[in-house]
Amino acid sequence: MTDTIQVDIVSAEHEIFSGEAEMVFAPAELGEVGIAPGHTPLVTKMGPGEVRVKDTEGNESAFYVSGGMLEVQA
């Protein structure tokens, strides 16, 4: 079985996405970051752009964000 991470994308109003993923790519303030299982904890601002979530079957979903915060928990 492949390691996964729990991904929650939320706005102030509601939950946009919640599920397991193998990899996430997000537009951090200083450039795109890739987050895989076991990533070190991180908190950073996000710029506008696309958050891509690769699920456990290899499918990729994209969500546009106008900014916000990215938090990776151990």
Describe this structure in words.
It is a single chain. The chain has 74 residues and is mainly beta. The protein has a single domain, classed as ATP Synthase, domain 1, CATH 2.60.15.10. Helix content is 0%, strand content 62%. The protein has a four-stranded antiparallel beta sheet with strand order 4-3-6-7, with no helix packed on it. A hairpin with a 4-residue loop joins strand 1 (5-10) and strand 2. The mean pLDDT is 94.
Short description:
This protein is an all-beta fold and 74 residues long. The protein has strands spanning 5-10, 15-21, 23-28, 31-35, 42-46, 49-54, 60-65, 68-72.
Q: How would the blueprint of this fold be written?
A:
Blueprint: E1 5-10, E2 15-21, E3 23-28, E4 31-35, E5 42-46, E6 49-54, E7 60-65, E8 68-72
Antiparallel strand pairs: 1-2, 3-4, 3-6, 5-8, 6-7
Strand elements, count: 8
CATH architecture: Sandwich
- Beta-strand level of the residues, as a percent range? over 45%
What's the N-to-C terminus distance?
Answer: 20 Å
Count of separate DSSP helical elements: 0
Throw out a few tags for this protein.
74 residues; mainly beta; four-stranded antiparallel sheet; two-stranded antiparallel sheet
